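Supplementary Text 2. Reproducibility record for the structural model of the 98-residue chain.

All settings were left at their defaults, and a single model was retained for analysis rather than an ensemble. We include the record here because the model underlies the residue-level annotations in Supplementary Table 4.
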Amino acid sequence: MIQWFPQKKSMLVKIAPWTISLVLYTFVFPVELLRRLIARGIRKNDLIPLILPLIMLRFAPDGHVLPTILLWLSIVVTHTYDFFFIISHFSYYLIFKL
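Retained model, structure tokens:
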């Protein structure tokens, strides 16, 4: 169990919540997109996040579909990681530094 009160903690207890939440949060968008598409089919709202990969595919050389999709997924995962990093540090600042 995570120890919330300030006390002497092992390195695993200090780092594990950050690592686990980072990995889980990074893959929320692709998993939720697949879950929504399987559960209720394609709607107009579901196509909005796919505008960027469609533009990337339009200007990609012929036969480069898979690398373009992988590049788009790496962009999504990287920016999700950046967002998590900024928000987690900002929330820490709001909670403990004010």
